[in-house]
Structure formats: structure tokens, C-alpha cells
Amino acid sequence: MYDLLVIGAGPGGYVAAIRAAQLGMKVGVVEKEKALGGTCLRVGCIPSKALLETTERIYEAKRGLVGAKVKGVELDLPALMAHKDKVVQANTQGVEFLFKKNGIARHLGTARFLSERKVLVEETGEELEARYILIATGSAPSSPRGPRWTTSGW
């Protein structure tokens, strides 16, 4: 039995799990993705910023620097994507390291509530019980009801 079970290992879930473990709680986390960190760390904010930072530097070099002539600057897309992947891997492995360092148990799969203190990890059949359960599953975009714009108009 866990003191705290966190469902979701994105920015809210993994930070809560690590802090709870640091405060002495026995913590488990259920996460459906193999890599920890959530959308922001794996496919959203962090990889986008890694790509943006490098492409901005390429643009600056092509535009020219005061007092310097720069020729032959071009984008190497495979190298840029490899850099992005390396940044993402370093961050997700960092979260994984902190889980291990703080004794947090990781359960790969999706959780379904069986009761107020018990969940089932659907992919493995594990039943997990906890004193507290934190739902940190992130969010999904939602569009308001009403007219929708398409490429052909309203």
C-alpha cells in the first residue's frame, strides 16, 4: 500500500511524486507512456524550444553579425533532429533518475478506479492501493461550441 499514488507523470505528477517521496511518503506512479515527463517534456515545449533555439542561431548567423562575414551557413535537419532527441532523452532520463533516487515505484499503464483508494493498472492487471490518490493526467484541448471555421469558410 502506498501513502500516495499519482496517476500521470507529467510536470504536475512527477514533481508531486518526487516531493512526496522526499518528505518520506511511500509513492507509486501510474503512467501510460514509456518515457516520463508528459507532453511538455516529450513532444511539446522542450523539444520545440530545442528546435527554436538552434534555428534562431542559424538565422542570426545567416543574417550576419556586426563586423563579421559569414558564408555557407545552412540547416542540417538530421543533426538538428538528433539534437532535439538528445535534449528530450536527457530530460526524461533525468526524471527517471529522480524516481529511482527517491524510491518511487513506476507502473506502466493506464489506471482505472476500483474504489476511492484502489486502482487497477489495466495493462498489467495490478491492483494498487493508496491512502491518497492524486490525479495528474494533464489536459486536452477543447474547442468552444458554436460556428467552426474551416478552409472553405464557416
Q: What does it look like?
A:
It contains 4 helices and 6 strands; from the N terminus they run βαβαααββββ. It has one domain: FAD/NAD(P)-binding domain (3-Layer(bba) Sandwich), CATH 3.50.50. The protein is of the alpha/beta class and 154 residues long. Helix content is 40%, strand content 22%.
Helix content: 25-40%
Q: What is the CATH architecture descriptor?
A: 3-Layer(bba) Sandwich
Low-confidence spans:
none
| Strand ordering within the main sheet | 3-2-1-6-5-4
| Name of the CATH class | Alpha Beta
Overall pLDDT metric: 91
Strand pairing plus helix content: what structural class?
alpha/beta
Task: Give the CA-CA distance, first to last residue.
Answer: 54 Å
Shape: elongated
Task: Figure out the total of helices.
Answer: 4
Largest sheet: 6 strands, mixed
The named CATH superfamily: FAD/NAD(P)-binding domain
Total domain units: 1
* SSE string: EHEHHHEEEE
CATH fold-level topology = FAD/NAD(P)-binding domain
Q: Approximately what portion of the residues adopt beta-strand conformation?
A: 15-25%
Number of strands: 6
Q: What Rg is obtained from the alpha carbons, in whole angstroms?
A: 21 Å
Short key terms for the protein model shown above:
6 strands, alpha/beta, 22% strand, 154 residues, 6-stranded mixed beta sheet
Give a quick precis of the structure.
By secondary structure, the chain is α/β, with parallel strands linked by helices. The chain has 4 helices and 6 strands; from the N terminus they run E-H-E-H-H-H-E-E-E-E.
